[in-house]
Amino acid sequence: TKPTFLALPFLPVVDGDFLPDQVEVLLNTTNLPKKELMLGLVKNEGTYFLVYGMPGFNMTGDNLISRNDFLEGVLMAMIDDSDISRETTIFQYTDWNDVKNRTKNRDLLGNLVGDQLFFCPVLEFAQRYSQHGGKTYMYLFDHQSSVNPWPEWMGVMHGYEIEFIFGMPLESSLGYTKNEIAMSKKFMKHWANFARHGKPDIEGVAWPAFSAENQVYITLNSNYPERKRRMKAKECQFWNKLLPQIQKMSSDMLTCLNASENTHHTNYLFLVILLAISLIY
User: Fold this and answer.
1) Where is the protein localized (predicted)?
2) Residue in 144, 129, 174 with CA at minimum distance from that of residue 48
3) Is 1.10.3720.10 the CATH number for 23-231?
4) Disulfide: which of 142, 169, 191, 225 matches 218 by Cβ 3.0-4.6 Å?
5) Cα–Cα distance list, 233 to 112, 184, 194, 212 (Å)
6) What would the pLDDT profile of 169-224 be if each residue is shown by its tens digit?
């Protein structure tokens, strides 16, 4: 049995009230509830999950991985994808000027996992939801906690904005900085105002709504919130648009070639690779 890495089912329950059907079904109909939505991501979504089974990783140290570890990691992350999809992804997430650089192999695998499992699915959902008329507010949290016990290279990990949203820095015994205490108070105001009024604005900070057209979001950290646009635009064009096309072409061509006894598999791979390269450029 080939190893698998991480399965992330959509956890909210279809209750017939708030969620009358599966979200993917609702996104393709006019029945999607128009609720205010606040969602976001952290700077290094993928790193937390690397240490739970990816080759070459553990919970301590710098985890500088070899090229072979990187390639095995891609296989684990894309176990159900076609060979050509994996090869295309390897092409996208490789620094071809420095292929054997262990630091880059580690960081690029973290980027791959974060983009694949979090950034691009969340951003696609936000775009589609806002197109249905639902008010959507998006953030990127990019502050690394001063009391985080994980190795420095892991950065701002998945879920690590939660301690600030719920006020953990206000407990003085935990050792957070003064800036982090102020940041936590600010975050709690954003979330409280969203819960009360459906908008996360606070005094002096207007939080613009996200749409498929503007794709605006704000950065959350100890500084004044900064407005930015089109988070991970190139990466998510790859995962949400290009890779599904390559996967479909690969499947269609393989079906056609299997019907022909005189066509070699190598010719098929060559054609698909040419098509993939033409789509990338």
Assistant:
1) Secreted
2) 144
3) no
4) 225
5) 14, 29, 26, 12
6) 999 999 999 999 999 999 999 999 999 999 999 988 899 999 999 999 999 999 98
